[in-house]
Every structure is written in C-alpha cells, then in structure tokens.
Specification:
Distance between the termini: 49 Å
Largest sheet: none
Number of strands: 0
Radius of gyration: 17 Å
Structural class: mainly alpha
Number of domains: 1
Shape: globular
Amino acid sequence: MEWGKLAHLFVIVLMGYLPYKTIQRLRPDGLASISTGLALLMAIWFLVLSAFLILQTPNLFINVSPLHIVVFGITVAIWFAAPWILRRIGAYPVKILGDNPKWYILRAEPKTFFLKFCEVLFQQTMFAHLFFEVLVPMSTVSRMWWFTGIVGFLHLFNIFFVPSGWFFFLVSIPMGLLFSWLILGGYITITTIIHLWFYLLLVSWYWLRR
C-alpha cells in the first residue's frame, strides 16, 4: 500500500466532493434546484480533477476494443437522451420525490444528468488511480479486497447525504469486487458503462413503473 498516495487521493476526493456534498447536505432540496450555471461549474470541477488524476496515473492500463467504444458511445447517447425520453414515455415520480426531495437524479433533468455523468467519470478515474497507483505494491488478491474496502468506506458516507444511503453502501461491496476484477484487466470502459447503466436503470424504474 502506498499510504502517501492514498492520503493524496483522499484529498482530491475531498476537493471534488466538498461543494457537491455541502449543497446536498445543507439545502432543504439538496442539488435538486441548483441553477444550470452551478451544475455546469461543479461538473467542470469534476472533469478538471479527473484529468489531474489521469495525469497522476502513469501506470494506467486500458484494454479497449471497437465494441467497447461502440457500446460506450451508445450508453452516453442514451444517458443524455434519457431526460427527454423519460418525460415522454414515463410518469414523474411525484411520491418518491415528495418523500425524498434531495434525490435529484430522479428528477431526470439535463443539467443534473450532466453533473452526474461528470461525477461518474471522476469516480472512475479515482478507481483507476487507486488500483494502478495506490495499491500497486500489493498482490492481486490483496489489491482487489483493499479496493473493495476503500470504495465501500467512501460510499459509507452516503448515509449522511443521500436517501437510501445504506442501499448504495451495500451495492458498492459486490460492485467493488466486480470493478476491481475488471479494472485489473484494463476494462475501465466496461466499469464506466456498468456505472452509468446502474443509474439509468434506477431512474427509469421509478419513471416507468405503473
């Protein structure tokens, strides 16, 4: 374990999430009613930190194929079209949002979907840096378990900021094991696709259920 690099990564994560989580925690409706400009600024901040982490990960290994690129492109297209599609074929989840006004992603608004997309990219670069820089000195099995433990620890804080925080924490454990195995093989594109589809399916379930 590279403890100095782990501390450095935690600082970057704190820098990325401080404005995001502060608004989510302190405002009555969290991020649900932020302006388009503020959503864009926070999204750009995530992208800047993502680029910084990539530059700090010289050992990054990405195993990509034309199929991965096509599937990723289709996923991104569906992601950004989802707010428009859901409003035409689904029903606004009034009840769940009435009970959980801070669950902004369920509102399926373009500005917050873009913000969530950039957050997912930030998380993916964080995962890559953790696996290819922080945990490099360890054995493969130890890297996978430490990766899962650290990702689970970071997700544990969701219980203080988002509805169903325990759900996201519990999901992060099997997802951490899966992601560590995929990242080990350089399949970061696939983990990003899975990550995006997790939220797409979650939001769609509330919009499309009858």
